[in-house]
């Protein structure tokens, strides 16, 4: 019995060591390159290539809608974590990212997780979000991506503070009122008249962020 217990413990230790040997670490840096848009808390995940946050030209799921309209990362985190065989790790930086600033994550992934996704809402907007969806992780060194702003197509872009959350507007976040009905590349701010936010301060041109992913080698 003692021999069997020792053998089991030895096998478990070997499995844990093998799994640890398969783990990879990455440094992910996000730089906000807009003039006047703030990124809400940013969600980053390592995962299999088959997992995707959204498909351009198709309707946004509710978890993405809640992030795009109100900056809430938890529903999207839960959605990703409901596919445990697909994901390596999911992290959220709770600190908003200001224009011209950079934030850095250290995130892990198993050897079978070759992709990374990230997302955050742009403030002040109705339903615009920055995203990378299932980009390839570097095997060695580093790789950089230009991240675009997408419109979730779930809310009308009226640029009215009553319908925009956050420290500037203090308006409504999630709304059941629908917009265009599909995810598309964000087309910035426009002059919509009095009582709306103006493009001179809040407009952007894609891309809105520079994302650099660096493989961290073990000592």
Structure overview:
This protein has helices at 2-22, 62-70, 74-81, 199-202, and strands at residues 24-32, 38-39, 42-47, 87-93, 102-109, 115-123, 128-136, 142-151, 184-185, 209-216. It contains four helices and ten strands; from the N terminus they run H-E-E-E-H-H-E-E-E-E-E-E-H-E. Residues 2-20 have low confidence and may be disordered. The protein has a single domain (23-216), classed as Immunoglobulin-like. It has 219 residues and is of the alpha+beta class. Strands 1, 2, 3, 4, 5, 6, 7, 8, 9 and 10 form a ten-stranded antiparallel sheet that branches. The protein is globular, with a radius of gyration of 20 Å. Helix 2 packs antiparallel against helix 3.
CATH architecture: Sandwich
Q: Are there runs of 5+ residues with pLDDT below 50, and where?
A: 2-20
- What is the gyration radius calculated from CA atoms? 20 Å
* Structural classification: alpha+beta
Mean pLDDT: 89
What fraction of the residues are assigned to beta strands by DSSP? 25-35%
